[in-house]
Amino acid sequence: MNAPMPMSKIIVRHADLRDPHENARIDAFVHDADGGTPFHLPRWLTAIERGCGQRAHMLLAERGGVIAGILPLTEMHSPIVGRALTSSGFAVAGGILSETAAATEALADAGWALAERLSCPEVELRGGSLPQNWQVHEGLYANFSKALEKDAETQLESIKRRHRAEVRKSLKNGLSFETGTSDHDRDRHYRIYATSVRNLGTPVFPRALFEEVLDGFGDDADIAVVSHEGEAISSVLTLYFNGRAMVYWGGGTFAARALRSNEFLYYSMMNHARDRGCHTFDFGRSKIGTGPYHWKKNWGFSPEPLTYAGRTADGAEARDMNPNSPKYRLQVALWRKLPLPIANRLGPWIARGLG
């Protein structure tokens, strides 16, 4: 009887993100893998690099030439919070996507070795397979996702009673809903988003980031805009992946609240997602205990706690990326008072390193 062939050794290497064949192999792996997200795709990393100037890296773990795991990384540089390798940059998910514990450990080791070569004192993994002996971060964020109902009326009935009444009121406020990716759609979305984050005291991301994501994802992304009497007042950019609609960058003007425009926007988005053939609506990440966290629960969604992991060089402090941190309280208060043109001029230069 012949002895069994030994399993091939796992080899970790850098992927060539300029090679369409390489990217197609990675795309297929991500789409087939449990836990795959759009933030694992080469097109996400490339959009971040082009839109914000943060260098993209993709580590592949292969066994016998077959992909066994990937680690997408963004090389973040910020004069405010320092340097790090993040998986993935500007994303709420990412991390190691692998089939085995051996591939996970090999990718984690390679990611840390890369960080040392690049003088990055920290590696941050936003979910995914967690390596042993890395620091685990949990209890800060939760994600909200849920299967879409069979039709619009059933979707409405699935919302908690008190919040359902708010949605019903929004349907009587003369609001309109449309989706697209035209220059006009992009103009309106960026204006609304920039206004919204300024009001929250946060610098706005560069417009080029949104442009690159929309161009890179093509039919797998769009912009939804809600208008009242011809004036756009709420908007969101959504990614579509494996039957999931993932609302991502959204905001509203001051007028949106009184008109319950966000209720109208997200209820309409659920119906739009169903019409596109999606089976799941992903409401995204919120900090546990905050207003957005409770607002999403009122839609009938249950929080799913998120677990991240990281590793920091000896003697270095982990980056503090929480805008609600006491150390940023004064900066947030001052930013809210900036005139919008000034905030929009300064914000992208600051925010391009805060993903």
Automatic annotation (TrEMBL):
GO molecular function, one term: aminoacyltransferase activity
PROSITE patterns named in the record: FEMABX
Record GO biological process: cell wall organization; peptidoglycan biosynthetic process; regulation of cell shape
Keyword vocabulary terms for this entry: Acyltransferase, Cell shape, Cell wall biogenesis/degradation, Peptidoglycan synthesis, Transferase
The keyword Transferase is assigned to this record: yes
Domain of life: Bacteria
InterPro entries listed in its UniProt record: Acyl_CoA_acyltransferase, BioF2-like_GNAT_dom, FEMABX, PEP-CTERM_FemAB-rel, PG_Glycine_Bridge_Synth
Protein's UniProt name: FemAB-related protein (PEP-CTERM system-associated)
The organism of origin for this protein: Parasphingopyxis lamellibrachiae
